[in-house]
Amino acid sequence: MKRTTLAVCTLAASLAGSHMALAASDEHCAGYTADARNLYWGDLHVHTAWSMDAWAFGTTANPADAFAFARGAEITLADGVTRKQLRRPLDFAAITDHAETFDVMQLCTAGPEQLDNPYCRGLREGAGTDLAKSRNIFVNYLLPVIAGETPALPSLCEEEGVDCDAARETLWQQSQAHANKADDPCAFTAFIANEWSATPNNAHWHRNLIFAGKQVTPTAVDYVRYSSPLKLWQALDEQCREEDGCDVVAIPHNTNFAEGGGFDVESEDNNALNLRAHYERLVELHQSKGNSECIAENWDDADSDCGFEKAFPRPADKQRALEDPGYVAQLNRSYVRNILSRGLQAYIASGNEDRSNPLQLGFVGSTDAHAATPGDTEEDSYTGDAWGGGGKDLNRIMQRVDYNPGGLVGIWAPENTRASLFAALKRRETYATSGTRIALRFSADDASEAGGPDSCAANYDYSTATAMGGTLSGRQAPPRLTVLANMDRTPLERVEIIKGTLDADGEIVQQVIPIAQLAQGAPSTCTSWTDPDFDPAQPAYWYARVKEQPTLRWSKRFCESLENCAEVPGADRMVQETAWSSPIWYLP
What we know:
- By secondary structure, the protein is of the alpha+beta class.
- Helix content is 24%, strand content 22%.
- It has helices spanning 52-56, 63-70, 102-110, 118-126, 131-146, 164-182, 229-239, 270-279, 315-323, 325-332, 336-350, 394-397, 418-427, 554-562, and strands spanning 3-7, 38-43, 75-76, 83-84, 92-94, 189-191, 193-196, 207-211, 248-252, 282-287, 290-291, 362-365, 408-413, 430-433, 439-445, 466-467, 471-472, 480-486, 492-502, 508-522, 524-530, 540-548, 551-552, 574-575, 578-581, 584-586.
- Strands 2, 5, 6, 13, 14, 17, 19, 20, 22, 25 and 26 form an 11-stranded mixed sheet that branches. A 5-stranded antiparallel sheet has the order 1-21-18-15-16, with no helix packed on it.
- α3 (102-110) crosses α4 and α3 (102-110) crosses α6 (164-182).
- The chain is globular.
């Protein structure tokens, strides 16, 4: 029998962020307790002027500026006029500039001695707020490198006397230096990172590489030299060895643009599956270019299960998705919920005692900001991030009405240091939001119908439960799943559990289970639910989805001010900001 309990409780102090000074020992932050969990907010996907696409559309801020912005400093956007500042600074950030053009950016724009040749002059003369010129750089300089059938070196690197290897290494060293300088243990964590930007035939198979500490790969691992996911993992395996103090996670992002590819576990050998499982422990569920949770035939209904913040690379793709169910099914293969379910199938298919799930992915959200503005996710201050920051030109921003301000990642960790946060990333004790700061815990325990401690009690010890991102061991009794959430600035409206499992024939089964409907809105909720259909013979995953009451979307605010809502399809709508916990798995 299904057991559902609902209690609105006073949430423990562990649902609030914690900012602690460094202890005198310099080993841990003041107040550190190994088993404690504090909530830290950050952004793991940010671009600056060192990314060619950001530079092309006018961004001039570098990684130092971006880290300063994350901590609360002001920044000037591409229009040279608009100033921005976070209302609530972040606890951590990673700058993930595109590694594929580190060489060009160092030689033409970022280095102290810039080359004076036709290639570099064309790049410098085209960058800025002139949209036509900016698009020319994007199409003629960046896409030939990453978006063809195979990647290619920038043509600049084929010129005699041009040392792209040295330039690439120089910018990578400077990127590390900026992160190391910005890192401030216990107050702010700055991760060394870069983006591996695989875009075969325009499909986005990108990964953000987040390093644990100062030990990193000798050069930034890029798609040009490492032209497949397998080659990426092999490069990391060879160049970032844990015995040398190096560790890294590769986070697939923006999988809604992946055209169904990038997760081909059905055809990968054991070596590839093991490497994938080792490095890819997280996936970006939400960012400015749309939501990647799931897609269904009714995706264009914003109130449907899979209708939240849908976006497509090109208008033709969106139209095709409206008309062709087969295309939607293709896209679905790289949406996160389906990826998780394919992981269950791969787990069963491996058929050996040492089998693992190669797609056991926790969740993060981030912005993919191209204006050096990590954490800038407020709907009421959106300035069109996609083109380096639209500033005050509302009509220009409205040209991409399906984009949104982006997401954030919440990390549960004992303290705000690289080591502590990175360990939480690896154990998947993270969650994604659409930009809101809902405080969310999701756990499973062994309490039965007959009794056991109340997981919704204010004094419940969550350290004894399996936290989000964890795996339940072999069992016969169904687990009790608990969702504990606290509102940000808008009351909570709904709590759901998403379940994925396989039927007796190994086919994917997915369910959306409402466990709390808060019609009048609530500041907090604690809801426990025991799965009545649990089958100890079948693998499964569960994750929590918490939605706020509807609020004004940025596009509605803009179109109302421009008095053109009827002329811009999709602009005149509200938004329900959402948080998604990392899953909990059962793998028999």
